[in-house]
Design a protein that fits this description.
Blueprint: E1 2-4, E2 12-18, H1 24-30, E3 46-51, E4 54-56, E5 66-74, E6 80-87, E7 95-99, E8 102-103, E9 107-113, E10 120-126, E11 131-137, E12 144-150, E13 159-161, E14 174-178, E15 191-198, H2 206-209, E16 217-226, E17 234-239, H3 248-253, E18 257-258, E19 261-263, E20 267-272, H4 278-285, H5 292-298, E21 301-307, E22 318-320, E23 339-340, E24 351-355, E25 365-373, E26 387-396, E27 400-402, E28 407-409, E29 414-420, E30 427-433, E31 442-450, E32 457-463, E33 473-480, E34 483-496, E35 507-513, E36 523-530, E37 537-545, E38 548-557, E39 562-572, E40 578-586, E41 589-598, H6 660-667, E42 673-676
Parallel strand pairs: 8-16, 19-26, 28-34
Antiparallel strand pairs: 1-4, 2-3, 2-5, 5-6, 7-9, 9-12, 10-11, 10-15, 11-14, 12-13, 15-16, 17-18, 17-20, 20-24, 21-22, 21-25, 23-24, 25-26, 27-29, 29-32, 30-31, 30-33, 31-32, 33-34, 35-36, 35-42, 36-39, 37-38, 37-40, 40-41
Length: about 675
Amino acid sequence: MLDVTSDRDTQSQYVNITSDSFNADELDTIFSGVSPAIDHGDEDVLTVELADDTSYETSFSEIDEGTYDFNFDVTDSQSSDNASVEVVDSRLDYSIENVESVEQGAVSNITLDVGQGSSAAITLGSTADGYATHAAISDIEDEQIVVQFDTNAVHTNPWSVHEDSNASIADADTSVYKSDSFTADKPFPAYNWDLSIGDEMSNDDPKTNEDYSLNNEHDRGRLVVNDRAEIGDVTTHTAPASDSLENLDDFEDTTVTETSTIAKGDHLIMNAQDFGAEGLVQEISDSDAANLETALAEEGIYVEISEQTSGPINDPTVWNSSVGTNTDNAATEANALSLTGITVDEYSGDLIFVVETPAGLETGNSYDVAFNVTTDNTYVSNEDETVSKESELSFEDREVSWDDISSLPATEDATATGTTTVAPGTELPAEADSPNDQGGFVQVADAVVTAGEDGNNQFAAEFDLSDEATGVTFDLYVEDTQDSTVNDELKGVELVEANADEPEPFEYGVSTSPSEPVKGDDVTGTITAENPNDDTMSENVTFTFDGTTKFDETVELEGGASDTIVDGATLLENASAGDYEWELTADGEVVADGTLTVEDPDKGDGSDGSDGSDGSDGSDGDDGSDGSDGSDGDDGSDGSDGDDGEDGDDSDDGTPGFGVGVALVALLGAAMLALRRQN
């Protein structure tokens, strides 16, 4: 289309049209809607009369794709203009760009390239396969769109447009043909299903006519549907009681922690990992059932919680979510489990829902939890395919407790820690309160709970004590917002200098007499301790030898002092050959351990051999194996006994004694092993 506008007073004007790409005849073909051209003999210029404020038809049907420039010059003035025109292929060309392979019950994304088309038709299967379906796509605004095929909804309408694509598929623009044997209770078979795309169907009623051909088939593809895979692990999780869990945003905003321990009042969440079947989950989510547990039960899915012990007479109490359904596993109304929170938004394949903990659960007890899928499920055809994923759940009281804190530094981030059973992510209000006759201050903070092992979670409260005077005492208080009776108070915490050094641990030495015992020896042990600090300190020390505790006392030493805390204690009498394990701990931490090896001299040293006749040493031979010295002759200096061999298989450490560290001392001829615990 050529649009002409002018600010001249005349109603028309003569214009020369030129282009580097076309001659006058070609220009005349393009601007065929303009008044007859003036013939002036110039093969490169088309002169035409153009009326003001008029639009003229143009024709580029015979022109190749590309961008072309045109110049327009008024013949009787200096006025001119120019324009660029991009010529594209307006013919429709559809193609199937990508087809996502899926498992039974899932939704496949099918990417289509529709070029300049505003409508298209797609088909899957054939009447010969026993299943065929089509969808007419309209209102297409993009060159590429994604349509979705729901393998769980194949009996009704499996087609839809992805939410990110600008197009539509009306229910009236779809159809499904099924053979009589493909009944509504059967899943879509695992198979390589043929796909075709074109401009439109060859008839208006493919199902009735059993004709799913296209007027113009542009491209073909294949949807691969695989057998449904086995469900993965089913895990239990918790979240803070104060957080709402009603939709996907709630799940993303809260702290969800995998655990087998749930505190009373906190959320219990179950996750069936790799559940898949997005289409099935969508159907459950859209169900008209009164609640989620009923919708799940109709698909043979239910949760069960059982007592592990019930006494000598009564049966264990069992709670399950299939109450009120027609399944064989339906629970009584009193023992019903309520399920909430399922969502298909951004579904990742994990089936996640919240289980409302029943009132009958008792704290301090453990329960069996099971996630079950029965033959009522579309994808479970027999008893061998049923699913029961079991785990154990501990149900605990809500508890909070400060750690053993004697002091905090006068810093802006003085941190007091404690342990709790409540869910990670919970915020516990905490206070540092110093009475008026001490520091006279009150600091408040929120202690955030973090995950620990086996439900032993931690919390940390950070206080700004940088402006407070050191040497005063204060009390720490923490409380659970869900139950104010759950609290803890720690009195008399001292505020100390910010840069006060942590005390160094004691240094210990362990030795035995003899240092290299042999069978029949009486063996004693000696332990020394040294306090490297300037102040008097104490540590709780335990020494265990061969499974027997030989020493278990609190050792107190003044700054810089040392003491023999075990002096020649009997470890073995008439010792038998063998290895004896030992361990030294201080304040519950292992500071030294090892193995004492008692040799049997009757079995030799492995490589020492006999010393022969102790004759003259001669050249003492080469040290070699130092086996029998043969005819060493006179005893002379009794030789050097070679390298004393390798002591055979005496122990893991290769040398008798307390292990590597003690063996080194033994080789140096010392009887004392000094071992220092690292910070």
